[in-house]
Structures are given as structure tokens and as C-alpha cells.
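Give me the 3D structure for alpha-D-xyloside xylohydrolase.
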Amino acid sequence: MKFTDGYWMTRDGLDVQYAAEAYDLSVETGPDGDRLIVHAPTKVITTRGDTLNRTLLTVVYDSPAEGVIRTRISHHDGGRPAQPTFALTPGGESSGAGVGGGGGTGGVTGGAARVSLDEEGAVLRTGDLQVRVTRGAPWSVQFNDARGVLTRSLPKSVGLVRDAQGRHFVHEQLSLSVGETVHGLGERFGPVVKNGQAVDIWNADGGTSSEQAYKNVPFYLSSRGYGVFVDEPGPVSFEVASEVVSRTQFSVEGQSLTYHVVSGPTPLEVLRRYTGLTGRPPLIPDWSFGLWLSTSFTTDYDEATVMSFIDGMAQRDLPLSVFHFDCFWMREFNWTDFEWDPRTFPDPEGMLTRLHERGLKVCVWINPYIAQRSPLFTEGAEQGFLLKRTDGSVWQWDLWQAGMGIVDFTNPAAREWFATHLRRLQEMGVDAFKTDFGERIPVDDVAWFDGSDPKRMHNHYAQQYNACVFEALREHRGAGEAVVFARSATAGGQQFPVHWGGDCYSTFEAMAETLRGGLSLAASGFAFWSHDIGGFEGNPDPAVFKRWLAFGLLSSHSRLHGSSSYRVPWAFDEEAVDVARRFTKLKMQLMPYLAQLARQAHETGAPLLRPMFLEFPEDRAVAHLDAQYMLGPSLLVAPVFSADGEVEYYLPEGTWHRLLTGEPVEGGGWRSEQHGFDSLPLLVRPGTVLPIGSRADRPDYDYGDGVTLRCYGLLDGASVRVSIPSTPGEATTVLVSRQGDVIRAAVEGHSLRRWSLEVVGVPGAVVEVTDGADAAQVHLERG
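Predicted structure for alpha-D-xyloside xylohydrolase (783 residues):
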């Protein structure tokens, strides 16, 4: 929220006091590093009398992980600790899903920070990152790394605000340099550069055409190679170059504010450190990367309809991996009761068996609400499993489901109750759950089981809901085999993949806003993301559907899903079938590459779909690009947002090659092209060794059997290491290098079989293979 009226004045009804000076500085030393403690009065102290009737802010700097500096600004510290809190990882190296519940962050340590004091002030150092606090007035703090100053906290940056209702707010403002751009803050559908925007971190079911967001994350990523994470599960207001145009302001209601500055120097390194602190995605099953087909939402369907869709896909040679049953697999007015509607699905166990015999996985829709008509409502109410009002009654309303209550996941018994029903469905044959909703969580007149603050629980509810479901799947299926399809999230939600972009219209404009949401979410630390191919609301024009097919099948996860109409390709035209086949099979062949990226995401937090600036941070032309992306480090994708195929995109410097044709394309500027429905700008980065799989019919296969390593424009003296996933947790590494006209491939291990090496963009190259006697040595000059 904004507190000032222009730069000089305060808004009516507000009393704002700023940290005026670093009055004194002290150091506390513990086993995990030093803490720098700064007392900052809101007036420069010149006489003893100035210390009376005076507000004193305490600012503490320490490090929870190397390369991360935590700042806590507090006014009155006598309040009770608030719940819930983000569950952060000591030392900052998290991998795999963790519990998304409570657990304070105050004890998270591990950065081994050291403080030095001198007459000018103090410096706290952790790794390459440091914060320097200048003694006295004016208030002056700067965060540095080896490159110099990253950002500063300047006069009027640290503020304590009191409004006419007696509420307190704490804010910080960090400076922005000339040309610096800010990204992230969750899945936001407006411009990917947040400069000039006011962003409220508050989950809402607002669709993709508004400033609201399903996934709000109080973390932003700067183009200067640092990040800022505000450690507050409740509402956070960001004014990005909007209240003060040379600063980013963030504020929370209450008596304290905690934030972390995360160093780089590259954006991907920032995300590595940030996800190390808040949680990295686990390994997910390879089958989840295949094509998902849904019943859609309010369409009429039964088992015969489902089987006709599956038969239709097979007859048209359209590889299908997952079938999803949306809401009406349960009876109307009963959501959620976890029971198949016997009128449309009289033999669910037999149907699931038949689907599995077709080689398919099965996903079903759920939400965390219990309708009053559901047989589970009375049970949940009597046992205290539903959210209550402050008078002890069950909180209810009629929006979405008549008389619905909300499962209280802060109650361990309620979590177990909910998970028990998920286990029953899994034993029946369900493989995954679409965890819809989780945003419409009330804050007035409610009492959570564990006493959580209602405002802090509003966003954090999604974390607890998705954690419950994901952990139930992992418990039943085992590590690496659990996957959800979630809509809502907050910081740390990347531990419970996959997420999809929510409800969008079936237009080119909605397709573009959907991509913007994915780019912002990727800059917020989420590795896996999907969206409804063709759009959700409305019946897409065939041109929209066909263009969206290419985009959707070049995302990490791909789902055909709509609202009131089916999304089987032949419902549009025969060309749509051809386009779906082309790009589905292409994705299957890209699985060695995608599976490698998924393992890297698990290890480093790097997203699969990447804004251009993540891969080209030195190119200032890419910061604002919101109609193209990198799929991993090697593939540039520019979806076509027009029926006639006209597309304009920016290509960084170098000789790129079209993946679909092998044609070389010179980068270094903007390009305008026209593409048919079976094509789009899909270019391979210079110096890439891209593994192409041998199968195009399914996503889960032995990637090392028959793999082709395609080398694109390898420069003289270059060396590229490519990892080919094989059995779970294992991979074969191939080192490809070039010396003069000789391309050498050295295999570490011998799990590749019948593999080949192709060379693109190096005329006259000679191929040599070592440690791989069963390799088929192939030299192709494509383009």
C-alpha cells in the first residue's frame, strides 16, 4: 500500500516515522555465525532528551545460508509469535518436497556470516555477499557483492506507519539502478517487468485477465542479479518503482518485517539459492510429461464418452499418457465426497483397470471444500475437521458448493482424514490429483485449529493443502512418482509440482497473458508449469486451438482441458489432429532433454520454461520480452499469436538452427516470419548438444537406447557435457568437444545403446567416438 502523497507529503490519516540513523551497532556471535544488531531511532539523537518519548527501531542482519542476508526490522517485540510461517531450510540447500505447514523461521541459520566493526560502521559478510551499515545519520545501508553495490536502503526507506485505526505497518525501500528491471512476485498475467506496478501478495480466483493471481509469491528477481524474499506468509504490498520511482517498497501490517537479499551473480544462481532456502521440486514421474486429456468441466460425459475419446486418440495416432476426470466424476452438490457418481460411472474400479490396461495414468479432480450435502460434511463438522467461526460454528457459504465448509489442514487429524480418502482412491487405481482451488480462504470471523492468524493463513492455505495431497501420493507411490496438478500456491509451493495457469479465455490475447503468467512464475522459483491448451472459457476458434497446441506441447506439462466444450483435436478440424500429432511426438522425442532438465530442477531449482533474461542476463534487449521463452537453456520458443501465422521475435547473437528443419538463422536482432499451423519459431542455441530420443509414442522409455546426440554449431575449443537419464537416479554422461575439425564424443559408462552423433553447422567435421564401441558414428551436415 502507498503511504505518501507524492514524494514530499504523507497521506492523510497516517503517521510515518523513519529510521533516522544507525545510533549504535553491536555483534552477537553464535555457532552458526554472527548477527549484526542496529538500533535506529526515528530522530537523530543530539541530546539525552532526544531519547525520551521516542520510537526506536531494531534492525538485525544475519545469514540463514551462504550468499543470503536476512534483515529483520522490528518495533515492539513483545507480541506472541505469529503462525503460520514459511518452513525454510537451514543452510539453504533443500531438495525434495517438505511439509508446508508451520515451523518458525527464526531459527534457520547456517550462513556462517562474520561481522567486522570500525569507526565508519559495520559489515556483515556471507560468501560473496555483504551488507554495510554506516554509523550515524543519515540512515545508509548497502548490499554489495564482488560486482559492487547491488541495492541500498536510504533515508526514508525503513519506516513505521500508524493509521487512524491504530494499525501499524513496517516498510522497507530498496533502491533501483538506472535500467534495472524487477521480475517475479508469483504468477502474474500483466507485464513481466513489474516496474511501475503496485502488487498485492494475496491469492485470489481472478482468472488470467486481471491483476489478481492464483499464485502469489513475495519474492522478486532483479535484472542486476540479486533477489529479495519477504518472509511473510500473509499479505505483502509491493510498490515497484511506483511510490518512489527509484525504489522498490514492500510493507506488511504488524510490528516487524523480515526479508532476505539473495545474491547471484546470475539470475539462475539467485534462484538456486532462493529455492535452496524455500524448497526445491522433487523428482516427478516421466509419464507426467506426456499429453493429458480431460473430460473438460461442465460437459456431459460417462465411461462411454471417456472410452470414445481414448479410442479416438489411438485411432488417430495421438500419443496419450494421462486421462483426467474433472469435477463431475463426483455427484453434483457433493463436492468433495471422494465417491464416483454411480449414475455415470457404475463400475469405477473396472474402468480404472481398463484405462491402465490401455497404458494410461488416471488423474481426478478434487478441492479442499466439503459441500453440506456431502456425507462427509457432518463427519467433518462433528470431529472438528472443518474451519470454524470464532463462536465455534462451522464456517460456511454457498459460493461454488452449497453450504460448503473448508477442510482445516492446521488440524493434524483433519489432514489425516483427508489423506485417508486419497489413499482409498489410489488403492482403487487413481494415479494423480488435480488440486483445484485453495484461494477463497476467509479471514474474517474465523478460528483455525492451531490458532493461526487468519490473514497469514489465507495464502499459506494453498501450501498446506497441496502438501497434504502430494505427501499422500508420495507415500503410496514412492519417491519420484508423485505429481499433482495444482492451481494455487505461495512461496515454497514449488515443492509440490505441477502447477497450471488457471482459468483463461479461448483467445490469442488470453494465450499471451497465460504465457506472461508462466514467465513470472518461473522467475519466482517454480520449475514446472502448464496451462489449458486452447483456453478454458469458451470454445476456441480452430486457429487459436492449433496455435495453442504448439505452445502447450512445448511447455513442461501439456493438458487438453476446457470448460463447457471438449478439447479433443478432431472437434476442431483434421488439421488440428495433424498439429497435435506433430508436436506431441516431438515432445516425446525431446524427453531425454526434458528429463535432464527435470533432474536439474530438482538439484538447482532452475525452471524448465525460462524468461529470456534468465539465459541472457547481459543482453538488455530481452528483459521485457513476454511473447517468447527458453525451454531449458537450449531451445528458444516463440509461440504464434495470430491466425495468419505472422510472428515477431528477438533472437540473441549467434548462429542458431531451426529444430524442425535444421536451417541456420543468424541472431542479433528482431525477426519477422510467417508460419503454418504445423510450425513456429523453435530454434536451437549455438553450441548445444541436444539429445533426441528414439521413441515418439510415449514419454517414459529408456532414453539411452537409440538416442541421437545432435551437435549444433559447436565452436572450436568448446566442450559440452550432456547427461542422458536412464534408470531412476542414474544417468550416462557424454562429453562432446571440438578441436579444429574434429568432434569427439567420450562416453562415461556404457549404458547408451545404438546411439548416434549428428553434427550441424560444422562443415567438414570429422567425428571420433571413444568409450562407446556400440555407437553408430554418424556425420550429418544439416543446413
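Residues 99-107, 779-783 have pLDDT under 50 and may be disordered. Let me know if you want a second pass.
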